[in-house]
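Much of our argument rests on the idea that a fold can be written as discrete symbols. In the encoding step, the backbone of a single protein was reduced to a row of integers, each denoting a local shape. We regard such an encoding as a compact summary of how the chain folds. The record that follows shows the chain in one-letter code together with its fold in token form:
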Amino acid sequence: MRRTMTTLAISIFAITLAAAATAAEPDAPAPASTFTVQLEGLRWTLTDYRSADGLSQVWPKSRPPRFSFQDGSFSGSTGCNRITGSYRLDGSILTIGKGLAATQMGCPAPLMAQEKAVIQALRRVATVHRKGATLELHDSADEVLLRFSLPQRTPLTGHTWKLESYDNGSAALTTPIPGSEITLKLDGEDRLSGHDGCNAYMSGYSLSGDALAFGPIATTRMACRGGPERAEQAGRYAAALTQAASYQLQGQELTILDANGKPMARFTSEATSSAQAATP
């Protein structure tokens, strides 16, 4: 009987110690939540890239360097050629696949240097960070390699701008040939389009504050029905646009300025032009 009581007491004592030890142990930490950076389903515009000279701004005359990430595949532009590849995203850890493919178009030297630096930066990406409308890709040392932004809202979009006057190389603004109907549209995603009086044209643009730059102008190749004068006008209009460095907007009037602040082209909103034409 005594042996039974002793065994029972020891058992109770052991259970008591185990319960006390369990109560004294801290709760196990909850698994850390994984937060995945939201970069998919958006069109990111490259603004800065790292080269041997440090972090540099994208050349303003480049084509719109936009990137899209979706379901493990990305595509974009270096400002010259299109580039595609694969990626894996785990929280903020971003791994770019080794197999990058690009078109092989030749571009001006500054663009080719930019393209080389962008591709080299992509191969070194380790993490991704987003703050509002800004996206950054960092290397393993947490140094910024590539910086992107979402297209900014601007009063320049949502309009068809009709050319009222432009610099045709004579150091003064002149009106277009009657009936030319030269137009300009900016779509809010760094793409522009319009009609130069002969052909449809398109390009890219970069916008930061009141700084505005257009990329190389590409046009359709239809014969100009207006004759050689209109064809010459179209070429001079394109030359004026490519000198853009900033803009002024007063009401419904848009003025494109060169690097010295000289007006290169002046437009009015087509809706305003129509209203003025209808005024008796």
User: Anything to note?
Assistant: Residues 43-149 form a domain with the Lipocalin fold (CATH 2.40.128.270). The CA atoms of residues 31 and 191 lie 45 Å apart. The chain is about 20% helix and 35% strand. Confidence is low (pLDDT under 50) at residues 1-33, 272-280.
